[in-house]
Amino acid sequence: MLTSDLRPIRRAPILASPHRVRGDIQVIFQGWLSVAAVAASVFVLAATNVAPYLVLLGAVVFLLLVGVLTPATALAGFANEGVITVAALFVVAAALNETGAFASLIRHVLGRPVSVRNAQTRLVFPVAFGSAFLNNTPVVAMLMPVVTDWARRTRIPASQLLIPLSYAAILGGLCTLIGTSTNLIVHGLLLDAGLPGLRMFDPTSVGVPCALAGVAFLLLFGKRLLPDRAVGLELHPDPREFTLEMVVLPGGPLAGKTVEQAGLRHLPGIYLMEIHRRGHVVPVVGPSERLDADDQLIFVGVVDSVMDLQKMPGLVPARQQLFKLDAPRSERWFAEAVVSPSCPLIGKTIRDGRFRTHYNAVVIAVARNGARIRSRVGDITLHPGDVLLLEALPSFVEQQRNSSDFYLVSRFENSAPPRHERQGVSLAIFAGMVVAAATGILSMLQAALVAAVAMLATRCCSDETARRSIDWTLLIAIAASFGLGNALDSTGAARAFAETMIPLAGSDPRLALAMLFLVSAALSAIVTNNATAVLVFPIAMATARELQADVMPFMMALLMGSSASFATPLGYQTNLMVYGAGRYRFVDFLRIGIPLTVLVWIVTTVITPWMWPF
Q: 357 and 480: one domain?
């Protein structure tokens, strides 16, 4: 073992006390237990489909039981600012989704790509740019549901987009001081060491070339190296076809646009069958057909797509009775009911049977034994076995669950009707959060918590939707990864690895810089990037002193290497966030992450001495 200035430790020629020897042996044994636990976790994640949170939590519990971790260090991740920030951002994202703001983002920014590569191009550039000025973890937390929904709408596998989302955010974070918390940590460590800290754009000279090279790699080789695992409607085909009627809102974003421009062509799982316009019918709807205000659009499709269509800005359900229900629309939910032969409305149309008056619920769409119903919803005559998609109060399900009028009544989870009237409020809250965090008025944690509370207080998001929006398994996985990192840190295993590897570079500063990057990248693959920066910082300082070189080139290598967490999902929160959502396997990160890490390593090694001479 070497000291922090890389000089051998000179021990006095005295016998160590038995207590000291036993303590050293115990620490070494605990270090090997920590390494074994991490190695076992990596093996299980790579070789099986066991949920990541179970694997990581199991490893932490094991280290807690054998005494490597104390309860405080094992559970420290659950109190980590990053974990709490991600949880708050789930609520913010749910509110933006419920008010339709995310749908607007998809339509205006991401658009409709014509290929996988085109979709990746539309995604990675704005994400990388945004992550340079807003911490990359919240960027991914906010965009992950957007990208997943966008992938389903465009029939592009989410597995082709979510790793690029994470990697682009990491690459963008390399470019400025505030892009990632790792840069801020190194800045603080430099100040503590009595040296000038990093300025806002100090990392830019090295970070931008790394980001450009990384983005180019993703676009050139991403489609080939990323798995093609569809996550969407194709995985759960629904034989039922619902008939749905929507109206183009006067003054809305769709009025005056063609079907193609409105994004109503090639919708996944649903299609526009006909248009009713001022007393006549447009039976064959072409992509160039222009939509007029108050056009009544008849759609046919599966239930998931019917639900998505409800959230599209500029479209409202055609049933005027919808706005005569007793409660505000923000307090209602979508439900499904199967009509029984004893229903008193059998043989009557939905309009003539006065369905709303009978049940205080409005029929949004109807499905009938896989047969296509070519009628407007209000003109459909109810038959036994018809499946009705309803908008009703939550109490409707309890009231009708045991009723003889319906065979089955159930509520769709996370299916509150959209709150388009709150879209401006939600966007204002989101913009305030971004500005407050980017300018330093509030920390990212404070800004996210304030935004989440504001979304709930202004009813942009219901309490139940907020609770259901939080991905608890993801938060457990992230928190558990902090526990494993604490074990490698507290036992000295991580530092021993770093102090053993870096001196192998000898007296060549360029080789030492390259080795420093590799050690940082290797540690960040299994320990969090922030822990890596703290562990390797004194070694980088000692290397610069030993070689009588300027410290800044080594700081740049430390910044780039600590954040180059591409090879595994464990070292960076954003990788863990997309791991489950994209249905990835551990080897998927190895396949594309290792060559990307090597590329960033080469760029850093070449560019850094040029921009920051030794």
A: no
- The tally of domains found in the chain comes to 3
Q: Comparing C-alpha atoms, which of 78, 181, 29 is closest to residue 483?
A: 78
Do 452 and 480 reside in the same domain of the chain? no
Instruction: Identify the band that residue 2 occupies on the pLDDT scale cut at 50, 70 and 90.
Output: very low
Q: How far apart are CA 560 and CA 552, in angstroms?
A: 12
DSSP string, 382-424: P-TT-EEEEEE-THHHHHHTT-TTEEEEEEPTT-PPP-GGGHH
Question: Who contacts 332 (Cβ-Cβ below 8 Å, separation ≥6)?
Answer: 325, 391, 392, 393, 394, 416, 417
Are 282 and 367 within one domain?
yes
What percent of the chain clears pLDDT 70, i.e. is strictly above it? 84
The predicted structure's pLDDT at residue 249: 82
Contact yes or no for 78/479 (Cβ under 8 A): yes
Q: Are 245 and 380 in contact (CB under 8 A)?
A: no
Go through the chain and tell me how many residues it has. Answer: 614
- Do residues 119 and 515 make contact, with C-beta atoms less than 8 angstroms apart? no
- Tell me: do 227 and 345 sit in the same domain: no
Q: Is residue 182 part of a domain?
A: yes
Same domain, 203 and 264: no
Is residue 35 domain-resident? yes
382-418 pLDDT, tens per residue? 888 888 888 777 777 777 877 888 887 877 765 566 6
Q: Is 238 left (phi over 0), alpha (psi -120 to 50) or beta?
A: beta
- Got the DSSP string for 533-551? HHHHHHHHHHHHHHTT--S
pLDDT in tens, 426-463: 889 988 887 887 777 887 778 889 999 999 998 888 77
Q: Is the pTM of this model over 0.90?
A: no
What's the pLDDT at 372?
65
Residues 484 and 465 grouped into a single domain: no
Residue-number span of the structural domain to which 330 is assigned: 242-419
Instruction: Give residue 232's pLDDT.
Output: 47
Q: Is the dihedral of CA 354, 360, 363, 369 positive or negative?
A: negative
Are 599 and 485 members of one domain?
yes
